[in-house]
Amino acid sequence: MRGTDEEPVPGHFRVEEAIVGPFLKEGQVLVRTLFLSVDPYMRCRMNDDTGAEYLAPWGLSECVDGGGVGVVELSRCESLSVDDMVTSFNWHWQTQCLMDEKLLQKVEPQLVDGHISYFLGAVGMPGLTALLGVREKGHVTEGANQTMVVSGAAGACGSIAGQIGRVDGCTRVVGICGSDEKCRVLVEDLGFSAAVNYRQGDVATALKESCPDGVDVYFDNVGGPISDAVIAQMNNDGHVILCGQISQYNKDVPYPPPLCDETQEALQSKNITRERFMVLNYMEKHEAGIIQLSQWVREGQIKVLETVVDGIENMGVAFCSMMKGGNIGKQIIKISD
Fold first, then answer.
1. Do 155 and 257 sit in the same domain of this protein?
2. Whole-angstrom Cα distance, residue 209 to residue 64?
3. Do residues 61 and 135 share a domain?
4. What sequence ranges are listed for the domain Enoyl reductase (ER) (predicted)?
5. How far apart are CA 287 and CA 144, in angstroms?
6. What is the domain-level CATH number for residue 266?
7. What pLDDT is attached to residue 202?
8. pLDDT in the model for residue 275
9. Structurally, how many domains does the chain consist of?
10. Using only C-alpha atoms, what is the Rg of the chain?
11. Interior/surface letters 41-73, b for 16+ CB within 10 angstroms, e for the rest
12. pLDDT at 2 over 70
């Protein structure tokens, strides 16, 4: 699949059997895959031009890669030993992989109380994106009576971002998602103040009811008409955390997609900041961020939601389901025990 204006389906993926070579070069390890990740950004990798310098397109008929976590089975490097748990952003969608040590990061299971898959979600890149997005671009101030709105709020990143907004001092946190069940989970399980199902009724009207004092911080994961509705209700000197635009990923448009004139005018007239956020620009803060996230998770201040699918043969199914919002929390594929 190379066209941009097309919706991915499981048939765009296929599973092949191959033998992983038994011979390790110096600096390599053989890893057994435990869990793999599917994420919205991967849709951009299905285009000839990903729209991002740091993202290479997936090659046709080549093994797909992304976030993964697993265990070292053989090692020819000093930094990693057999039975070490490791993670990588360049993990091939394979049950076993030969990998260079420079692509791997050792992780400590006790940080997540043994929930290894959390390193792909709440205590991994989505969690860091939520934490640093709120901290670097949200300007949340405890005691300032701020209202935060999160779109894509039941996803891997949004579900964590809303909880961090609450922990950091927002008076109200409102999530936008795509089902009544997701709304229930956000409010009853994750502590959101309210939730809006964008598939039911008018989003703008529901937002006015949920955000009587307007919106001060908007964590934007989706873009499109939903974001237009939120920005229209933002207060002066508010902040948009431009994290993702998943509603636009199947369209042939640049990133970030252009805004309509009315939304552009609202941003300018109300002095609202809207800067693209990329977690990779804050690498020096990742280690401390992971420690903070793991502490919150262990203490129960942040609750983790996962949707788990079994089997590497279901990677395409899981990816396409995630792109349509079929997951609650982080979409995880379990490959082995």
1. yes
2. 44
3. no
4. 3-333
5. 29
6. 3.40.50.720
7. 94
8. 86
9. 2
10. 20
11. bbbbbbbeebbeeeeeebeeeeebbbbbbbbbe
12. no
